[in-house]
Amino acid sequence: MGLANPFKSKTNNALENVMYFAERCYAHPDKLEASLKLDDLRKVFLRKIQADQIALSYMSPIHSAPSEIFYFQLFGPALGKLVSEKKPETVAMKETLDLAQAGILPTPWKPTSMIANIGIYGLGYGRRPWLKQQANHKILWCPTFGIGIVHGGNHSLTAAVITNELTHFNIEESYDLSQLFDTYYFDGHAFKAKDNSKFVSIPEIMEFGIVYEISRMIHQIKNAGE
User: Fold this and answer.
1) Strands, E, within the chain: which ranges?
2) I need a surface site. Which of 66, 75, 203, 206 has the fewest CB within 10 A?
């Protein structure tokens, strides 16, 4: 018997349950440690989103893998459309991501590449190291949510995630979506407008709503006193 889906239960709000832990992490007197605790809690759900997306690719009929993750899947149709039309602020940066730790969301889709790219990387297993392909690999990095949406190199980046070794990926720009916190919130089922609680949209990936609200708390800690 499988576990019940808390998002589909009328008596069990998954967000409320997670917020029990998130609020206690947030309340830690050392705000740096509070932020680190919240970041680790967020990773629980980022890794589920990551694993579900990769697994779905292998579970789908041949040549019917899911499309790459886009804003509408994370925010729902209406809010996703608004986010995609309003180009997020691009921030020039020099940051190195650890692909074993960062919330990278690749979507393998080509059967031959889905086979060819697994089982060949991993220094710890006596295999060859994973190397970045400058012309091929592209990650839309959004530190607001700790998410990197893969727009190029889905198959080899999937292999890097599966290998789960210390693998560096250099990021030169990121996308800031923190302005959304001022206008929208996730209530456990849907995104709503903050000023009047009006329904906006339901995310396709419900766990992202939890990621969104934990990210709000991390953002509040980082910007306290500004």
Assistant:
1) 89-98, 103-105, 138-142, 147-152, 168-176, 184-186, 191-193, 199-201
2) 66
Q: At residue 93, what is the residue type?
A: M
Count CA within 13 A, CB hemisphere, residue 103.
Answer: 25
Q: Measured between alpha carbons, how far is 41 from 43 in angstroms, rounded to an integer? A: 5
pLDDT in tens, 202-224: 999 999 999 999 999 999 999 98
164: helix, strand or coil? coil
25-43 in b/e burial notation, b at 16+ Cβ within 10 A? bbeeeeeeebbebbbebbb
Span 57-69, pLDDT tens digits: 899 898 777 777 8
User: How far is residue 179 from each of residues 29, 71, 130, 135, measured CA to CA in Å?
Assistant: 26, 15, 35, 31
Q: Which amino acid is at 121?
A: Y
d(Cα 89, Cα 75) in Å, to the nearest integer? 18
